[in-house]
Design a protein that fits this description.
Elements lengths: L18 H7 L2 H4 L3 H17 L5 H20 L11 H13 L12 H37 L4 E6 L2 E7 H26 L1 E2 L15 H7 L4 E2 L3 H6 L2 H27 L7 E2 L18 H24 L14 H24 L1 E2 L1 H9 L5 H12 L3 H18 L8 H7 L7 H4 L2 H7 L8 H15 L1
Bound molecules: arginine.
Amino acid sequence: MTDNANSMWGGRFAAGPDAIMEAINASIGFDRRLAGQDIEGSRAHAAMLAATGIIKPSDAETIREGLLTVLSEIETGTFQFSTALEDIHMNVEARLKDLIGEPAGRLHTGRSRNDQVALDFRMWVRDQCDGAIMGIEALQKALLSQAEAGADWVMPGFTHLQTAQPVTWGHHMMAYVEMLGRDASRFSDARARMNESPLGAAALAGTSFPIDREMTAKALGFDRPAANSLDAVADRDFALEYLSASTICAMHLSRFAEELVIWSSAQFSFVVMSDRFSTGSSIMPQKKNPDAAELVRAKIGRILGATVGLFTVMKGLPLTYSKDMQEDKEQVFDAADSLMLALAAMEGMVRDMRANEGPLRIAAASGFSTATDLADWLVREAGLPFRDAHHVTGRLVAMAEKQGCDLPDLTLDQMKSAHDAITEGVFDVLGVDNSVRSRTSYGGTAPDQVRAQIKRWKERLV
Ligand code: ARG
């Protein structure tokens, strides 16, 4: 082996890599984030090699101690990462060799960087699933507090961003609690599916050493070892599932963020965002901008980008490992950071924001929001078929619009001119409070329904 050739595989090489080769090949700039997982995996592997008699227990002990030293060097920032050593796996092993000498060379018995990286990355993504679930639950709790405070505050419900029917603030908050609940369950489903250990698949075909894959799987918190060595080193579907779940979650956050941007505008004034999550303008002194919400709205761009990026990297790759797959990590790291930040920012915004009960109520009553209640009343009290009731109500809306007033402002005579079965009783359902109270169907906006859902979620989230 020449001086320039690689210490890991230098036997076959006469010369070291071109500088450009080193630059394109190295992943240590980003995969150092896998250091903790890498060392944990190596410790489990070494313990198994000793337990199965593949290496001496004394070597395993020396390796274990050396790995702990490496870990503390990395954690305290004294570790010297080297691009020439390409990736985290070789950086750790090379340092281990500096520290303990010959036994370090025994650690890689029955293992390859292919199962090693599949293991490290899988454990990292698994942790992110747990982190995402925690972040989601914290946000759900913030939403529950908002929902509880305003279970019966009325606000307009929209379709097409046009006033549709009055709903309650609590109901609107709880809609996001439901969405986020499904997001959390997607992360936990993905986690359960990815929880099989690739360690021991070796390069691709398994190994002739009498390894114990059950043992390492158990030590590393996996449910079982992956059953096919080719699959274990070749697939990154676990990362794609994580990214897909993240994208859906980020989409929900983005929609909510957009609502906060709209609601905090002077024109809507539905909410006041706290100063802690807003910024000012360098030129317009009156401005308070919902920057955090806007950035949460935007984060999906990176997360979806990572998802598309990794699908694109993986499609068309023949089994098993190809170096393309080194491009799996950076974007997952970025997506994970973005998601966690977006969840935390949203939680902070929701905790701190104040709903403007007055403007919400005024908006709830405007825009003929109780027209459906009027039509329903005609069905219930006057026996009209719904389609006819719809028509009569439409005429009354047109009448009110022409007069520049809302439905409850019409006189009884005007009401009767549209249908003579209308009585004084109709005015009861034209109030927004009565309207929301009447929506008692399961999952409806009636405050009692909303409170029942809050209770169910509070029990679930303790
Ligand atoms: N740094 C590599 C990666 O991230 C590790 C696996 C290398 N395996 C190999 N056969 N070259 O994918």
